[in-house]
Amino acid sequence: MPFDPTFKARMEEQSRVSSEVQERAVLSNLHGDGRVPDSRAAELVAHIEKKGDSANIRDELDEFTTEKIRKAAAGDGFVHPNNDDNKLGNGCRFPARRSDDRYARALNFTHWEFFKALIAGRIYLIGKRMNNPSDFDSIGGFGKSVSQQLEVKYRSYCETMRGIAELDRGDFQRRLAPIFELYAGYLMAASDENSGVKPYEPAWVTPWDKAEECGLPGMDVEGWHQILGVEYQYEDPKLKGAHVFGLLKYRIPTNYSLYRPTCLEAGSAPLHYPTHCGLAEGLPVQSGYTMDCRMGNPTAMLREWIHLQCPLRAEDVWALGRPHEPFPDLAPNLLGWRKSHFGRLTADYPSAKLPPAEFIP
Questions:
Q1: Closest alpha carbon to 337 in 228, 203, 260
Q2: By CB neighbour count within 10 A (0-12 exposed, 13-18 middle, 19+ buried), where does 248 fall?
Q3: pTM of the complete model beyond 0.70
Q4: Distance between CA atoms of residues 292 and 225, nearest Å
Q5: What is the pLDDT of residues 208-250, one digit of tens each?
Q6: At what angle do helices 38-49 and 57-64 cross, to 10 degrees?
Q7: How deeply is 46 buried, as exposed, middle or buried, from its count of CB atoms within 10 A (0-12, 13-18, 19+)?
């Protein structure tokens, strides 16, 4: 990533004085990610430089990800126009996608942003039926009274979802059908330039057949996230109970592009590991790779991509459940996971140039 020497030195100094293990991992990602095109790196540098020497790298990276990539998304959505080098079939190689290819993904049904997306979908669909402009103020910078009403509805929705999570597959799929109707309305709103609605996060996916080989479909909620390298929030103060997650098995429409993820899409997520662009030399597929966060001796390494949120069906939900314990503590485990992941990459691709597993000294 082509940072200027002064900026790099400042980041190294900040990492040395920081006691935050997650921040050191994120700084290491920024230094080691060879997939970030020069134009995007320069834009990130300019964004952080505006804040001066007191800038918090993780906070500024999240702000950049939100403002410059997600809210300012064009074309495919989450990926910046300057990220075409990472678009499969454009800047990197990818085998022909088949219409019956399935992908695995973990989805938090009780995430606050997912709930707001459903509200946006409902407002949009009502507006379409009444042939009136949709009012999205209630999901943006809404006033105190609307905010309180939404929080009450949010808690009720989450309680309903916890009940649905106890049902068998056929029953919970029937109960989820109305939710995906609202989700479809949200996608229509997000594609409407006049609505002001933007996608709230990229969808991170891995091939279902490879996930199946690792035993992912038979795991519980904790297993899904640990093998996919995705930290989850166990509880939210607003929820007064555990989150509800779904494991999806679905087709991605062929008109949706897949992108290999970089640290800019991952933001301040410390479980992302930046595979260097040199890793892909001679390989049939270029992608990211999931970090296996299971305790012991993790061995899984699944290819992963990101794409714009796409239509989903209730039948796409393979399993539904709640975590019974928090995600493993990052502080004592993160460096070990990164070293294990690095070891697997170097064993499989010995000629590849990779960023160091260790944090920046």
A1: 228
A2: buried
A3: yes
A4: 9
A5: 999 999 999 999 999 999 999 999 988 887 787 889 999 999 9
A6: 120
A7: exposed
